[in-house]
Write a structure and sequence with these properties.
This protein is α/β, with parallel strands linked by helices and 465 residues long. It is 61% helix and 10% strand. Strands 1, 2, 3, 4, 5, 6, 7 and 8 form an eight-stranded mixed sheet that branches. Helix 6 crosses helix 8 and helix 9 packs across helix 10.
Length: 465
C-alpha cells in the first residue's frame, strides 16, 4: 500500500519535472511472471524513478550503486522503493562482495517478482550504449533454471530530449521480451559461459533498437540537423516518432558515411548550422516564417496571459523561485558528471518544496489566523501550477521577442539562409530517397511533403519516409 502511494507521488514529480513523458511498447511487458527490466542508463537515479513510476508492475526492485546509500535523503528514498545496493568493483576493488545483493535478486525472481537493472554498469552521458556487463544474463538464466514459472528479460530504452532541463520531454520504449525458454536453458546447461555471452549480446542489440545512439556527439548533432531539414514543416513529431526518425538517420548514415555525396552533404549542413549558431538563430525560425504582425499578436496574447495569471502565480513563485535557484545551483556545482544533474535537482527541490509548503501555511496562520492557513494550504498547490504555466508562457514570450528582433535586424542574412536552407532540404530528401532502407515503411508520404517548406527549392519526393 505504501509502495503504491509512493510510486504515485513519484509519477506526479516526474510529470511535473518533464512536460511530456511518452511510453511506447507497454504491450511488451508481461502482465505476470518474473521479469528483469534491462535498459540504458543516461540519467542517473532519474532512470530508475521513471521506470518504477510508469510501469504497471509492482514492486520493481532496481539495482543501484551502493554509494547512493551514503546520502541520508537518498537512502530513505531507495529503501522505500525496495532498491538493492550493488558494490561496483571499479570503486570497491576486485573483492567487492555482492553475494547478498544477487541472493536477494534471486529470491525476488524465484517468487515471480520484478527487478530492474542497468547492464552498462554505470550512468553516463555518452552518445551510444556502453559495453554491457554479463550480470543480467547470468541472473536471468540462473533464476529460470531454478523455477517452474516464466522468466523474461524486457529490454527498454530511455531517451531524453534534454535530460536535465526542467519541463523537457522523455521517451520510455520497451522492446520485445527475451524469454528464458527451454532451448536457451538447455544451451545454458551445456555451455553456461557461452550462453551468457550470447544472451548479453542479444540484449545489447535489443536495447540499441530502442535507444538513439551515434559514434560521437558531432555525428548526433549532424543527424539532428538533417532530420530537422528533412521533416515536413506541417508534421508534428511525438517523442516516439522523433526518436524513430533520428534512429533511422543514424543507422543509414553509419552504412553510407563514406560516400562522397554523403560526406559533402554533412559538410554543408554543418556549415549551415555553424552560421545559424553565429547569428544566434534556430533552424525552426527559417522553416516556420512568421510575419511581423503575427509575431506581434503572439507577443500581445502571451503578455496578456502572463499579466492575467500573475496574481494567482505570485504566491507560488515566492516559494518556487528560491527553490528552483537552489536546485539549479546544487545541480551545477555538486554533480560529478552531466548525467546526474537532474537527479541532484530533484533530490534538492522535492524535499525543500514539501518543507516550504506547510511552513507557508504556518506563517500565514500565525500572521492572519488559522482560517487563512487552511486557505493557504488549498491555494499554494494551485498557485504552484499557475507559476509553472506563467514561467513557460514568459519563456515563450521572451523567445518570440528575441526572434522578432533578430529576424528584423538580420533581414539580408535571413534571405540568404532561407535560400541555403531550401537547397539543403532538397539535398537531404534526395539523399533519403537514395539511401533509405527499402524494406521499412517510410514515416512520411507525398501528402506530407505537398505543402511547400520555407525556402524549399523543389517539391518533396513522392516515395515517402
Amino acid at each position: 500500500m505504501f509502495y503504491r502511494g509512493f510510486v504515485r507521488f513519484l509519477s506526479l514529480v516526474a510529470s511535473t519535472f518533464y512536460r511530456r513523458i511518452e511510453v511506447v511498447g507497454v504491450e511488451n511487458v508481461p502482465p505476470s511472471g518474473a521479469v528483469i527490466f534491462a535498459g540504458n542508463h543516461p540519467n542517473a537515479l532519474i532512470d530508475g524513478l521513471l521506470l518504477v513510476s510508469l510501469v504497471d508492475r509492482s514492486p520493481i526492485h532496481f539495482l543501484g550503486n551502493a554509494k547512493l546509500w551514503g546520502f541520508p535523503v537518498l537512502s530513505g528514498l531507495l529503501e522505500a522503493l525496495g532498491a538493492i545496493p550493488v558494490l561496483r568493483p571499479e570503486e570497491h576493488g576486485p573483492d567487492a562482495d555482492n553475494r547478498g545483493a544477487f541472493a536477494r535478486v534471486d529470491d525476488i525472481l524465484l517468487g515471480g517478482g520484478c527487478v530492474a537493472i542497468f547492464p552498462e554498469g554505470i550512468s553516463h552521458a555518452d552518445s551510444q550504449l556502453a559495453t554491457l556487463k554479463t550480470g543480467t544474463a547470468r541472473m536471468a538464466l540462473h533464476a529460470a533454471a531454478h523455477r517452474d514459472n516464466d522468466v523474461a528479460i524486457v529490454p527498454f530504452g530511455l531517451t531524453y530530449l534534454d535530460r536535465d532541463r526542467f519541463r523537457s520531454q522523455v521517451l520510455l520504449q520497451f522492446a520485445a521480451p527475451i524469454p528464458m525458454d527451454d532451448a536457451r536453458l538447455e544451451a545454458y546447461q551445456r555451455d553456461d559461459v557461452g550462453t551468457v555471452r550470447q544472451l548479453t549480446a542479444e540484449l545489447g542489440e535489443r536495447i540499441t533498437r530502442v535507444t538513439l545512439g551515434a559514434p560521437d556527439w558531432a555525428t548526433l548533432r549532424f543527424v539532428h540537423a538533417a532530420r530537422r531539414l528533412y521533416k515536413p514543416t506541417s508534421a508534428k513529431l511525438t517523442p516516439a516518432s522523433y526518436v524513430d526518425l533520428s534512429r533511422r538517420f543514424v543507422e543509414r548514415y553509419a552504412l553510407f558515411a563514406e560516400k562522397p555525396d554523403v560526406q559533402r552533404l554533412r559538410d554543408e549542413i554543418e556549415a549551415y548550422q555553424a552560421e545559424l549558431d553565429g547569428l544566434g538563430l534556430k533552424d525552426h525560425q527559417l522553416s516556420h516564417p512568421v510575419s511581423a504582425s503575427n509575431a506581434i499578436r503572439r507577443i500581445v496574447w502571451r503578455t496578456a496571459l502572463v499579466i492575467a495569471l500573475f496574481p494567482l502565480a505570485l504566491p507560488g513563485a515566492i516559494v518556487l523561485v528560491p527553490v528552483a535557484w537552489l536546485a539549479a545551483t546544487v545541480g551545477s556545482r555538486f554533480s560529478y558528471d552531466i548525467d546526474d544533474i537532474a537527479t541532484l535537482k530533484l533530490v534538492t527541490a522535492v524535499p525543500v518544496l514539501f518543507s516550504a509548503y506547510p511552513l507557508v501555511a504556518i506563517m500565514v496562520g500565525v500572521g492572519l489566523g488559522w482560517v487563512w492557513a487552511v486557505v493557504a494550504l488549498l491555494l499554494v498547490p494551485v498557485s504552484f501550477f499557475a507559476t509553472l504555466f506563467v514561467f513557460e508562457k514568459q519563456a515563450q514570450l521572451l523567445i518570440s521577442m528575441r526572434s522578432l528582433f533578430r529576424l528584423a535586424r538580420l533581414n539580408a542574412d535571413i534571405d540568404a539562409l532561407v535560400a541555403r536552407r531550401g537547397e539543403l532540404v532538397a539535398a537531404v530528401r534526395t539523399a533519403v530517397d537514395r539511401y533509405a532502407d527499402p524494406t521499412i515503411r517510410r514515416m512520411f508520404d507525398a501528402r506530407d511533403f505537398r505543402s511547400p517548406d520555407a525556402g524549399s527549392s523543389r517539391p518533396a519526393s513522392t516515395k515517402g519516409s
